[in-house]
Fold each of these.
Amino acid sequence: MINLGIIGYGNWGPKLVRNFMAVDLCTVKKVADQRKERLSLISSHYPAIESVQLNDDILNDPGIDAVVISTPIYTHYEIARKALGQGKHVLLEKPMTSNTDQALKLIELAGEKQKVLMVDHTLLYAGAVQKIKELIDGGETGKLNYFDSTRMNLGLFQPDINVLWDLAAHDISVLNFLINEKPYSVHSTGKCHTGNGVENIGYMTINYQSGLIAHFNCSWISPVKRRVILIGGDKKMIFFNDLEPAEKIRVYDCGYKYALNDKKYDIKVDYRTGDVYIPKISHKEALSTMAADFVNAIMKGTTPVSNHISGLEVMRILEASDNSMKNCGREVVLNHL
Amino acid sequence: MINLGIIGYGNWGPKLVRNFMAVDLCTVKKVADQRKERLSLISSHYPAIESVQLNDDILNDPGIDAVVISTPIYTHYEIARKALGQGKHVLLEKPMTSNTDQALKLIELAGEKQKVLMVDHTLLYAGAVQKIKELIDGGETGKLNYFDSTRMNLGLFQPDINVLWDLAAHDISVLNFLINEKPYSVHSTGKCHTGNGVENIGYMTINYQSGLIAHFNCSWISPVKRRVILIGGDKKMIFFNDLEPAEKIRVYDCGYKYALNDKKYDIKVDYRTGDVYIPKISHKEALSTMAADFVNAIMKGTTPVSNHISGLEVMRILEASDNSMKNCGREVVLNHL
Amino acid sequence: MINLGIIGYGNWGPKLVRNFMAVDLCTVKKVADQRKERLSLISSHYPAIESVQLNDDILNDPGIDAVVISTPIYTHYEIARKALGQGKHVLLEKPMTSNTDQALKLIELAGEKQKVLMVDHTLLYAGAVQKIKELIDGGETGKLNYFDSTRMNLGLFQPDINVLWDLAAHDISVLNFLINEKPYSVHSTGKCHTGNGVENIGYMTINYQSGLIAHFNCSWISPVKRRVILIGGDKKMIFFNDLEPAEKIRVYDCGYKYALNDKKYDIKVDYRTGDVYIPKISHKEALSTMAADFVNAIMKGTTPVSNHISGLEVMRILEASDNSMKNCGREVVLNHL
Amino acid sequence: MINLGIIGYGNWGPKLVRNFMAVDLCTVKKVADQRKERLSLISSHYPAIESVQLNDDILNDPGIDAVVISTPIYTHYEIARKALGQGKHVLLEKPMTSNTDQALKLIELAGEKQKVLMVDHTLLYAGAVQKIKELIDGGETGKLNYFDSTRMNLGLFQPDINVLWDLAAHDISVLNFLINEKPYSVHSTGKCHTGNGVENIGYMTINYQSGLIAHFNCSWISPVKRRVILIGGDKKMIFFNDLEPAEKIRVYDCGYKYALNDKKYDIKVDYRTGDVYIPKISHKEALSTMAADFVNAIMKGTTPVSNHISGLEVMRILEASDNSMKNCGREVVLNHL
């Protein structure tokens, strides 16, 4: 039996508790939050769980095997470092840390302590994303030409990370999950309308040497909610609309062929449009699969789908995005060791 | 009675003929196209219109008062120069020319010859865009924070201009029409998947010193057709979906207020969501209003809504976009005289 | 070469002219309408077509081979009778006549005169309906359980026929086209809100002995336009939305199985949901195929898809519907010879 | 403090428990269900609630003040009778009972015992329905001409009541809530495809002497889920789509005016279309307001919105619907005392 402590009981907290409570051989022992009104919510819903105000009540508790950290990003590193130091497995909400240095230090520490360090990119566990992975790996789409994501709504402004860190983090994790190629470079632009230097609108482009181009359009100030990813292969194209209740993925059997000529301005393009199909996908709650993946990693030593490496790769891109923004959108080339 | 000659009878040609035929005090006398199969289409639909293969049959015809140029962009300058030289009024399909130098020369020539030089940014005449202009000018939206457009479908690849010149041209003309501020700088990235150096996917950001940010996402290789513009003001926000048959505009009475604190990472944001309303708009065909505007400008000396200045302003931005793309997305600052 | 005369140049008139003009070996010679403003429209668009005010200018013209009748329904019988009497082929806009007696007399007369008598149920020629026919005939849907159509919008009130005659006529023709079984009985209810005894809202149910049930919901006073047909088979189900620009048909691989028990109130039902697919359909204009079908029938003696028998079958159901409405919605059993 | 017992822990059970637990001065003491697997669910989620297999453990418990009955309809009457007999307040899930006789007996018994007898028509408490009520009562729609509801999906077949009892019950309750006029007559048709005499497709029309007509289209075997109500007044029309996550109601400022003439077939109709607006509605969970309404009725003697009278009125219509179905769709006139 794995005894969990959860640090931070904000919007995501109740979902974490509910899903971890449902995992076999796992129980939530303690939840910590500084805010008394949050703690009282736990007591009323889950009288059996101990609620505490101090993180140390969890971090220093020898009866706790693993810690889930669901606090603002800027606090992740310190809490995770202490938790690993105390010999506990760690699950961090995304994005992993405030920068890649912190992420690398945690990875090193987890290695030393031989503990699981996992990052919760929940979307990787969604039935739709699993199905898209299956379609791409099965060769349905052919070579990928573009990945175009839009993620916008009104709210929730984050105080310490900009909208790309908050929202594009989801789509970047999906992009990395779907393709094997490493990104070559990143451009980002954006705008802060709140005077605190935190962009609430952000646009990012990721370039690949294969010709793939990825684009991200994120906003906290859109009146319409939108969560879509469009993926174009040279055989088929996929449209993923995460707000559709059931029909989340459409596979378009369409494309184009071109022939160039010696003459300038002479290109002949043939377009092909065919059937569309909407594959059935699993509607199992992604967070429950994620929770089970974490517990499994602890108990059986398996590598989680959303592991520390995938968490770090997302960080690298977000860090490059910040560098680009600070340099007026200049291209930032990523160095991969 | 204004006698028109139309040069180029491609996809847009039949619509031009139909709409100009319906304008009072105007008739289409000749249509020129090099392709015999296009000419035979005219003869069958409009036996009264003379169809010719050589542009000069129009340009040198003293019975023709005005020329509509609907040919590939790279031919615009030469044809328009000749037409103005022959003392004819000129309407150019968008975008105006291949570069701003050409545009400036045509503007100068039109001034010398005292002829109308107009660019057909049809979208400016659409009921939806007219209504959005009215809402913004009437103060409904308040100060604008963003303008976010997406224009994508499968096809029609252009041989001589990239997807931003082809598609974003529409949205840039709308943006310029709606706001009075001059843009400060432009970033663009994109990708060509056809080996001819013409980007079929393009992303552009335009920055303004007021804090407004404009973004454009254009693609010729999307399986889904999408033509939307989202406009965010600090009072209200507007969603314009040009593919909706009737309900093209939604006005959202929503927004946010924020309060900063001395403490880092401490921002309090209040969100407000209210009613949405869908104003009734005119469904008159935009092209017919554009055609009448051109004829009016010739006959009465009025300034068309979509005039040579608005055509030139779109060119400036597209040229800066090209410069940015050639320089790996670097910010290109626009100089306005 | 078939010389056509078209009687009635209302909303549908220009479409008929355009499409018949485009059929090989067929030309529109004359168009008749009592309203001068309608005739002047023809002259301006099609100077080569003679426009006349009197129907007899067409009916008595020996140079006219075939007549298309696009006038109010209550005039159909007299005009068609004269036309057949003059040895002309006849195409009637739907619904065929004001009652089945008239329809039967016309059919008899056409037989005597050996002329084509056809009814224009255009929807039968639509790519979507052709595809649905193909799917059902190919066994994809299995045995049909229901057919559920909704056709509503604001306007156009008809003066002489109620909303079921006007709108359900389309869907009944499709239903008859798709299945081979004869209907057993009809129920209809409705309401007139305009004081002239012509129902502007109508609901009809058609029962079949096989267990198929068909329902029709029609309205001229709905603020939303809707044109959908849902078809449920025991293998697959089809959703046809005629307002979708491209993706008009969705085929759902879903269903249910049930097991009854001896115990009352004990039924076990298993539901199955699978992929959805959206077949590519032809987007050729249905009216052009209909026009060619009429010309073909005249020239080669083929039986049109939308022939006088299918026209009559629609009439039988509409007449039963009227009987049901007049008798407070009582079931009206259809007698088939 | 009101101590509740809940009888029946099916699909709706967990929602009832969660919502009643959240009502002030109310607690769920016991839940009864014959199925052990359902009881074990309660124990795991709510260890503080006692779970029992026998209804009598609740009905005979003097510590329980009120009973919520969420079992198949055919069991409602017996359980409710016992509960009232034991002096407990009763909340019945909709529809109230198997017939109006049972409903009338329970109402009489509740009167004798001076206990609250309430029926849970949850939809009446939804923000959208409350807003529609406000719009109609405020005169926005003018005189109502029609009410047209569609409620369909795949599943859940009920064993003892047909699809109109199951699904139309919601819409009938809304209709009765919105208008004051008593219905005049009912027609229903439908079809059973499962051999047990329980219709899985049903169509019902309700006629009113004022000219209002109401229609209901219900199905358990539709591949698409649909929950819409269209309401047409002579001033404005309302479209309510309960599947829209936020924009559930659209108010159309449209209509028509007509002028009749002495001449037959001469009606002149003018159509008017204007703005559409989407009012903001409360997104509070309807079931929580319903739960509070029940507790309030017990504690303060208030009349619940969804009370025994509204429950009975729904029953009367459903009973007439059954009579109509059994008589081949014949009109059944309702007698109101």
Amino acid sequence: MNDSHFLHGFLNPKSVAIYGANNKGNSLAGLQIMNLIKSSYDGKVYPIHLKLPSVMGFKAYKNISNLPEIPELVVIVLPSNVVPQIFRECGEKGVKRIVLISGGFRELVDDRKNSLTEEINNISNEYGIRFIGPNCLGVYNNWYGPEDEKKSFNIFIWENLKRSKFSIASQSGTLSCHIWYDPENLDLGLSRSLSVGNEANVDIVDCLEYYKDDEYTEIIGLYIEEIKRGKKFLELAKEITPKKPIIAIYVGGSKAGNRALQSHTGALAGNSKIYNGLFKETGIIKTDYVQEFLDIAFIFSKGIIPKGKRLGIITNSGGPGAMVANNAENHGLIVPEFSESLQKELKSALPLTASFKNPVDCTFDMDLPYFYITLPEILMKSGEIDAIIQYGVVGFQEVLDEYLKYDQIAKHAEFHHQPDEFVDTLVQKLLQPTMKNCQKYSIPILYINPMNFNAPWSKKLRKNGAMLFTLWDRPVNALAKVCEYVDYKQKRK
Amino acid sequence: MNDSHFLHGFLNPKSVAIYGANNKGNSLAGLQIMNLIKSSYDGKVYPIHLKLPSVMGFKAYKNISNLPEIPELVVIVLPSNVVPQIFRECGEKGVKRIVLISGGFRELVDDRKNSLTEEINNISNEYGIRFIGPNCLGVYNNWYGPEDEKKSFNIFIWENLKRSKFSIASQSGTLSCHIWYDPENLDLGLSRSLSVGNEANVDIVDCLEYYKDDEYTEIIGLYIEEIKRGKKFLELAKEITPKKPIIAIYVGGSKAGNRALQSHTGALAGNSKIYNGLFKETGIIKTDYVQEFLDIAFIFSKGIIPKGKRLGIITNSGGPGAMVANNAENHGLIVPEFSESLQKELKSALPLTASFKNPVDCTFDMDLPYFYITLPEILMKSGEIDAIIQYGVVGFQEVLDEYLKYDQIAKHAEFHHQPDEFVDTLVQKLLQPTMKNCQKYSIPILYINPMNFNAPWSKKLRKNGAMLFTLWDRPVNALAKVCEYVDYKQKRK
């Protein structure tokens, strides 16, 4: 447990005051107070507003000094010029934690001397305040009240996300909260998220320190434009990665990238070589792509980590099999040719036109239990592979149902619609033994169904625990990075 | 027009006989005859079956000799050992075109001498037959009857796809037809598709030759495991790429990839360096990823081709802006710092906290006409950029609607649900002037909305012609490849 870490209070406040809160939809502070309602937050909410008597049904206060208690957290969404004054008022009230959403500090050309930042830093030192921001979006805790799945402390995420043990610390607000708009896009879920903005007081290193001993964090995602305390970061990362994977996006190094950073968080121009070296040394998984960032976290979140980098490929089509094999090897995975005994075992069970050397291509085969259960089990038992990519888990019944809409077909076809319950049971029967085997052998299967991620069959597979992708590019690249990390861990043992 | 090319008849037959056709759902030939029905094919259909009197409502024939006419196309889906006999029967009947779906030829270890392939080649030579395959999935023509959008000649695609001028030739069946399962995943559409399989008779070079002068083909997609006629391929590609872009996936080069090819189409081990050189010399756009293959084609399919590689970035969030800038430069695009006059123009119109050097980051700005119309127009008019990536075109009304589901919010909120017609009109107003400007300046905008591709706002944007992506990785990489091609074309002028 890490209740004692100062960030714990930022994520678990029993009361929160919001400067700028209002009843509008097109204002950040309006959205934030609505998120508290939406996420069933049951602490006290104190809007602070000069004119409104109440905001979203909560009694409003003109000034923090009028509040009946010292709020455990203060959120500020007002223009930067009034922020020093608010900080001082908060200090006088006894406030110890502030989330400073407002932009307009060092990222502005006009404040290159950071005089405003210096001012609020001085005030917070004077009163013993810790603050997150400025120029951030806030904090999120999906385990606020662990016993009640619906409850979270959320001021910045627009959707209801499922719980997981993936936690984020990010110098970009968007990367901390706006990449999951629709959970239908992804099965990853989220634990905590901390948008640190310009890092005038709290930085990514603080977040790492907190996540290190956090029982609700097993995978850490970072978005980095600049690391301010390099030595401490290095120490912490080295300590964490043997236990919890860290996935990092680092932006910087290119001319355009550096220019973008300067006007974003005011970060100084970075050198991507130095960062790449740092990541390599500490076993941090680096990616340039937000989708890959999520995919890698997704693989880890399923909890079945491969023991090595040998990939078995099961497919019912040669092209995707060949592309997976080719890309896998080019990204550092090993696609071993199977031993003669394993080839023999596979050959005896496969159709004549199938291939069995790896990839295993069973062509247009309709024997579902064989495809979903037997084949993966043979591979897992063999001891010759560490992970499986399986292409072709399509919702064939949906395809047939489409044909049945045509009278001429419906009249003559020797097949018919299967009731949903039948398909439900079928998917369950096909997947459950294999999911157990994945656990037993610690061999993950990355499934691919080129149909829509939310097509009926896809949904059923996902519901039964399948790690599902829609095309075959992403799983290869993400798995390769997972296996690189596994390699790093093993070499350090 | 290229009616005279021998492949024209394969795509526009007035009659087709199918060996192996049946009423089953789990058989290739069953699916094929159903596709003919589903795609409103109005030619004659002759199932050939030893026992069934009719198939899917079409009168069946025991033998091709009994058919009342010479079918313009014959499709064979029967085991390889009976194929030579069928070829001979077809020859005797006077058939000139066969699509040979059956596998079990040179890709099998047992037929490394290709004796079966040799046999059918000899027979087809004897009778003047051209055939596609073996080991393929068939052909597709989305312009069979150009006047009727619903009509196509389709034996292998399971969905109804929209028409476009993107045509495919592929040595993988899946790559030729099973990457669009659900058109909801993609707005690309399809024109023709030719699955060439083992290429015993018709090869990818024939397809290129056909697509070269085909009025319904403006973008060509290839999946290649092996090129049999290298010299002719080179000649044709050089002739085509100045007019029509060719996008190619080449698989091979890695050990595992080569092994996969051998058991897939029987292709010989390839050397990726030779192929990369070939592609570079001919201006073929090469990719290793099926998603990128589709994305590149998608950008071309919109018909607005950038004139150079200078990228303008519009965003309402710093992180995605910085990532786009960084990845763009790393992939060969130029992200120019705007001229002082352009910066001045932007600065005067943007909020205080915004940045305007490129990326243009307008932060959490709610002025939609400015974001959707004015900003892109300022960039286009400036002459300083050739393409735009715009992050943040979110469906904010949908987000607000979600909040309104909570009583406490609905009771106090100063905003309300907007009727669908209002939103429809809004999107139309926001997009149409910009779509016109894209045409006028020949500057494409690649929009990004991290919400689901089929969320209401996304759907409306797409309906109004927007080129939409869900995250910011793919558009950068695909655009970089499009611009490389533009560069190739300009250098050859």
Amino acid sequence: MNSIYLRVSYADTDQMGMVYYANYLAFFEKGRTELLRSIGLEYKTIEERGFYLPVLHAECKYISPAKYDDIITIETKLYEITAASITCSYGVKCDEKLLVTGKTKHSFVNKMLKPVRFPKDIKELMEKNLEEQTI
Amino acid sequence: MNSIYLRVSYADTDQMGMVYYANYLAFFEKGRTELLRSIGLEYKTIEERGFYLPVLHAECKYISPAKYDDIITIETKLYEITAASITCSYGVKCDEKLLVTGKTKHSFVNKMLKPVRFPKDIKELMEKNLEEQTI
Amino acid sequence: MNSIYLRVSYADTDQMGMVYYANYLAFFEKGRTELLRSIGLEYKTIEERGFYLPVLHAECKYISPAKYDDIITIETKLYEITAASITCSYGVKCDEKLLVTGKTKHSFVNKMLKPVRFPKDIKELMEKNLEEQTI
Amino acid sequence: MNSIYLRVSYADTDQMGMVYYANYLAFFEKGRTELLRSIGLEYKTIEERGFYLPVLHAECKYISPAKYDDIITIETKLYEITAASITCSYGVKCDEKLLVTGKTKHSFVNKMLKPVRFPKDIKELMEKNLEEQTI
């Protein structure tokens, strides 16, 4: 699991006085990028090698709202790996309170957006860091 | 079902050259607002009466990417109504091709964000416009 | 001058209950794209020809806030043309009331982001549609 | 002067492969909030006291693009103080290279959005931290 910390900005809020619901997906992206970096996979480098991880499916459960100026934690786990896809799971917290959970599934594709198998080094790093599916 | 048409702007895109995945949730919001308006419920007026429809759950399936300058259609349906929640379903199309589908579930709450029952007039308008759950 | 109409969405607002200040630049982009289209220049086609119009300078004057669900008008003019740049000016209105004004200056560059002269056809279409600088 | 560090995310980019021009204004907001916090003024607390700092004018000069995964620095200064407004100036850098500069001017208003004079404690903290206008 990888944890990052974010300060909620005014830009993130809506007139209900809380984080707009779509913005959690952008928070998930930040969590995902740092999870990959923490296991030795820079997403930027993956793209430079000609591979991409577009999103196939995303879901988000909103339990309690994050507010302006809150410092929130994004906890990201590598949840599942298949032949040509990965799934990450996310927990957004503030002061240990769980606010939002979610998952995103990504296909592994080449420049023509065709699904391809993971190169061996990427596969190995991912499998070594797969979390037990306790949630 | 209500349909709206949007032109994909540069702001919507990311460096993969397609619409960034979180932005479809903002497209869904536009579809939802116009669905409500089309059945006689202005969301702005709902808020002025002291009620809100925060999102409980959102999901999105990405089939094919929308690109810059595409004119996309957002088709929105009222999919399910419970005592204090509604679910909308969405289909995003371009030239009749289905790009993205999704659902959002909303609780019906008061100013203190406490779930409340729908006022009779709102409930009636919603129930009259509930779509058959064929999808 | 070209006019487009937009409905302010929840995504556009912040917790002050008005459109977040950065979002007007995205509104300007929509106005600019439609201005170019209206004079026969599709920005998408310009990019396909290998040219880009990145922003060199942007400014925005905030007179009165746009609110959720407002239908706003973006009026866009081609304000100035130089050898390798154009400037657009913008007025955002709601019910004839001026809310925001702005300008963006764009360089004309090739794929390597090097400034280049306008192709003759683009230059001619732009010059024919340059507005008198009365503002 | 206050400095903050940000990692450019995919959400920030557009299909030109660089940060979308409007997003720098959101970066400026983050810089401004931390500048205020660093001099003892939490913007959240200012709002809780019934005051707001809406933007009157913003401008942005784009020198060189920030790219995906860049770590950028936002340097923010308190540039000018008048009876009921403040101006902040910004410099966005990557590896010491200046990418973007800007300014935002803010009125100081009450809940009815009427301009008001600064409370003495706020005024004093701001004046003590006004930078010399060398830029």
